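To: structure desk
From: M.T.
Subject: fold request, one chain
Message: Could you run this one when you get a chance? Sequence is below, nothing fancy, just the single chain.
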Amino acid sequence: MDMNGLGLRRSIMMAHCKQTAIAALLLTVLLAGCGEQNGSDENASPGEAAFGPHCAGCHGMQGQGRPPNFPPLADSEWLDLPAEGLTAIILLGLRGEIEVAGRAYAGYMPPMQHLDDDQVAEIVRYLKARWSDEDIAWTGEDVAGLRNVLAGRQMPEGREDVDLMLEELP
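Reply: Done. Structure tokens follow.
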């Protein structure tokens, strides 16, 4: 191979490396922007402590959301769902367009099945207490039972799917 061919290959490879580096940098910046610093507050309840790193990046520590993709939790009619509904959304995720407080959101909530049962229960209790003024009894054992019932279920698409799923629960 002559030197011109080698130089051309090197130029192509350098361009590809630059594109890859730029894409990686953009992805890092975008992902960093999605997270909200939640600090490490020793006075935080277990629910708030679990909510911070797992939910606040999209919904905000104050429940304000991040329009147009991530809906608020504060003043959200979705918190009128029973603990089973909120737990199902946390475990299975949610996709499709939804409406919160009269505004459409076209986001995607990933499944949070990596959270243990106690963490999920703490988050659900925190959501209800913080933004619905409800003190509910919901335990890790309740979550474990529901997790078993939901095994193999698909991610719900919108509120109708969530409501239908709740009707089908034992």
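Reply (cont.): The mean pLDDT is 85. Let me know if you need anything else for the meeting.
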